[in-house]
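Researcher: I'd like a structural prediction for the single chain below. Treat it as a standalone chain; there are no partners to consider.
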Amino acid sequence: MKWGLLTTAPDQLTAEMWAEILHDEGIPARIEPRDAASFLGVSAMPCRLLVPEGRVSEAMAVLAQYRPE
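Model: Treating it as a single chain, here is the predicted structure.
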């Protein structure tokens, strides 16, 4: 499966929440592994959220319901 960039979350916790929302809607999602690496356990740095390339538009529409403009 080829993964495409959906968006960049401000931190790992936000990225994980968005990924869970997408999973609940049946859309596979993952956080770019190199973005989540932190010696403290959770990264406070921006994290890229990936979904299958063919589902980027669908995933954007789902997240738009939860993200402020």
